[in-house]
Amino acid sequence: MKKLLLALGLLAGLIVPASAHGFTIGEIEIVHPFLRATPPKATTAAGYMVIRNGGSTPDRLLRIETTAAEKVEFHRTVIEGGIAKMQPIKEGFEIPAGDEFRLGADGTHAMLVGLTGPIDLGFLMDATLVFDKAGALPMTFEVEPAGTKLEDTEAHHE
Amino acid sequence: MSNDAPVPAAKKPKYKPPLTLRIFQVVLWILVVGAAAYMALPRLLTPAPTAQLGPGVPLTAPFQLVNQDGQPVTEKAFAGKAAAWFYGFTNCPDVCPTALAEMATLLKELGQDAAKLNTVFVTVDPERDTPEVLKPYVEYFDPRIVGLTGDLAAITSMAKSRFVYFAKVPQDGGGYDMEHSAGIFLTNAKGEFVGTLDPEEPLETKLQKLRKLTADAA
């Protein structure tokens, strides 16, 4: 019985509430990074997150590394005259000093190309965010239902 | 005095000014009528504008495509029922899943009225989106969504006849992206265009549009 209680206690300590899903390196804080669940056999997926910079100098998210896809690209979807276009963003995203960058706002997203497996609900995708100044941050993406938008997740993560 | 002047000479100066005046008057009238005609005629002669999308324009041009089960489908399969037509591609990570997931939500919100609506996802990337690729994709969002693909020429002419734009955009890595009309096109039971669901508008607005569309169809 004692052992069971101990195990439960340990488990409770391991289970982090969703609102606490976040990662920190130096002055950089990542709030609830998530991927959208994908249909079976999908080859692409999209990732979103809020990145806060508590420091006094801007930083830059240079790239995302993961073994779950062949590559991760940064894009911005723009709709001009009713036409949806995707602009590649090669230089990464600036994280302004004392402010935040919302990956998911204004059509921005991280696109996983060449998925090596399905992105199902419950899947935790390990990845590394590489920042220009803060360096490499190993972290995990959670999976939200398909069609989830960044603003949908923010309300209950604030 | 005037009486001193010779008669013929006196008559001529009397007649000439009115004549030139009359000529001037006639010329003036010709100019006025000409100007009026110049302004009015183009409107009468130019044919009514064609090839422009607007409410009431029939989007019923014939097509021959295949659905996600690989079965041949023509425009007749959708005749007599209101429809929401979405054009996209399965390799699209952001806009298309958002639109399809929203469509699934809208169908659930419509409840029984969803049966009065065809929802169609037409791929603009038929080279990659074969029926085998399309099937799990559309059915993941909602099994009521019909996926359409076919050969590129058939897709191209189908899209063109329905005022849909798409183009292949090569990417640095060797792959390509598709740019395409982002709106969902709504048609009534007669196949006439009634409006679009725009990606930017709130879900509630989209739901109201579909409610009206399915109510009108009843």
Helix-residue proportion of chain B: 40-55%
Enumerate how many helices of chain A there are, as a single number: 2
CATH superfamily of chain A: PCu(A)C copper chaperone
* Terminal residue distance of chain A: 38 Å
Instruction: Please list the strands of the largest sheet of chain B in the order they lie side by side.
Output: 2-1-5-4-3-8-9
Helix percentage of chain A: 10-25%
Kindly report the name of the CATH homologous superfamily of the largest domain in chain B.
Answer: Glutaredoxin
CATH architecture name of chain A: Sandwich
Low-confidence stretches of chain B: none
For the record, the CATH class of the largest domain in chain B is Alpha Beta
Strand content of chain A: over 45%
Count up the helices of chain B: 5
**CATH fold-level label of chain A:** Immunoglobulin-like
Largest sheet of chain A: 11 strands, mixed
Strand content of chain B: 15-25%
List keywords for this structure.
heterodimer, A: 158 residues, mainly beta, Immunoglobulin-like, 11-stranded mixed β-sheet, 11 strands, 53% strand, globular, B: 218 residues, alpha+beta, Glutaredoxin, 2 domains, 7-stranded mixed β-sheet, two-stranded antiparallel sheet, 5 helices, 9 strands
Could you characterize what this model shows?
- The complex is a heterodimer of chains A (158) and B (218).
- Chain A has one domain: Immunoglobulin-like, CATH 2.60.40.
- Helix content of chain A is 11%, strand content 53%.
- Chain A has two helices and eleven strands, in the order H-E-E-E-E-E-E-E-E-E-E-E-H.
- Chain A has helices at 2-14, 150-154; strands at residues 22-25, 28-36, 44-53, 59-65, 69-80, 83-88, 93-95, 99-106, 108-115, 125-131, 135-144.
- In chain A, strands 1, 2, 3, 4, 5, 6, 7, 8, 9, 10 and 11 form an eleven-stranded mixed beta sheet that branches.
- In chain A, strand 10 (125-131) and strand 11 form a beta hairpin.
- The longest helix of chain A has 13 residues, at 2-14.
- The radius of gyration of chain A is 17 Å and the shape is globular.
- Chain A starts with a helix and ends with a helix.
- Mean pLDDT of chain A is 88; it is low at 13-18.
- Chain B folds into two domains: 2-45; 64-217, Glutaredoxin (3-Layer(aba) Sandwich), CATH 3.40.30.
- Chain B has helices at 7-45, 95-110, 131-141, 152-161, 203-217, and strands at 64-67, 72-74, 82-88, 117-123, 145-149, 166-170, 176-181, 184-187, 193-197.
- In chain B, the strands form two sheets. Chain B has a seven-stranded mixed beta sheet. In chain B, strands 6-7 form a two-stranded antiparallel ribbon.
- In chain B, helix 2 (95-110) crosses helix 5.
- The model of chain B has no long low-confidence stretch (mean pLDDT 87).
- The chains are: A mainly beta (158), B alpha+beta (218).
- Strand 6 (83-88) of chain A pairs antiparallel with strand 7 (176-181) of chain B, so a sheet runs across the interface.
